[in-house]
Protein: Class I SAM-dependent methyltransferase
Organism: Microbacterium protaetiae
Amino acid sequence: MTEHDNAYHGDAGVIFAARAAEAGLNSLHERPAMLRMVGEVAGLKVADLGCGAGQLAAILSAAGAQVTGVDGSEVLVDAATRAAPEATIVQHDLDLPLEFLADDSLDGVVCALVIHHLNDRPRFLAEIRRVLRPGGWIVLSTTHPTADWGYFGGSYFDERWVTRSLGEATMEYQLITMSTLINEIIDAGFVLERMLEPQPDEAMRTVDPERYERYRSDPIFVILRAHADK
Ligand SMILES: C[S@@+](CC[C@H](N)C(=O)[O-])C[C@H]1O[C@@H](n2cnc3c(N)ncnc32)[C@H](O)[C@@H]1O
C-alpha cells in the first residue's frame, strides 16, 4: 500500500459497487462511450486497471477478450470476481509496478475513471506501455477537468488534491488540467488516436431526466485512445 492510497476501501467500495450496478452515470454515459472507443476485442488480451465492481471486465469478457482486472479495493475485487467470473481479478495497488504482467504481453488496456486517484501518473503510464505489445492500445477515461473546475472553483491551473463525497464515504483525487492529462500520455510514449467528450445515452433521458439534460450540455467525462509507440 502506498502513502496516499485512494482505492475505494471499506464503505467507499460498498457504496461504489451498489452505484456501479445501477442504471445511471456509469452505465448509461461513461461506460458505453468507453466501449465505443475500445471497439472489437474478441481474442485480445486486455487489462482493466482499476476495474471497480467489474462491469467493464464482464462486458469485455463476454465480447471474447481474455481479461485481467486489477483493483486495490478488497471489497471491489470481491464484487468484480462475482460480476466477471471469466476474468482474472487481482488485488493490487496501481501505484506500484504491475509485476504480475510481463513485458509486451497485452493487446489493450482499459482504465476507466482511475488515473486521477493515483500518486504518480507518469510511472503508471510507463508501466502500461511496458506491458503493452508494440502498437497495443489504451483507452482511458477521467473526470473532465472543466467539470472539476466548475465544482471546486479556484484556478483551473491549480493542480491539487481534493476530497469529494461518495455517499457517506469520501474519495480523494487530483485535479489536473487537460494539457497535463494529454501531455503525460504523450510523454509516456503513446500516440494519441482519438478524444471523446461523451454525452449520455438516450436511455438516460427516462432513467434520470435531470442528469440527462445537464450532461447533454455540460461535459463531465473525457476519454482518450492512444497506442504504444514502440
Ligand atoms: C471511479 S472508480 C472506477 C471503477 C471502474 N473502472 C468503473 O468504471 O466502474 C475508481 C476505482 O479506482 C480504484 N483505485 C483507486 N486508486 C487505486 C490504487 N492506488 N490502486 C488500485 N486501485 C485504485 C478504486 O478502488 C475504484 O475501484
Observations:
- The first strand starts at residue 45 and ends at 49.
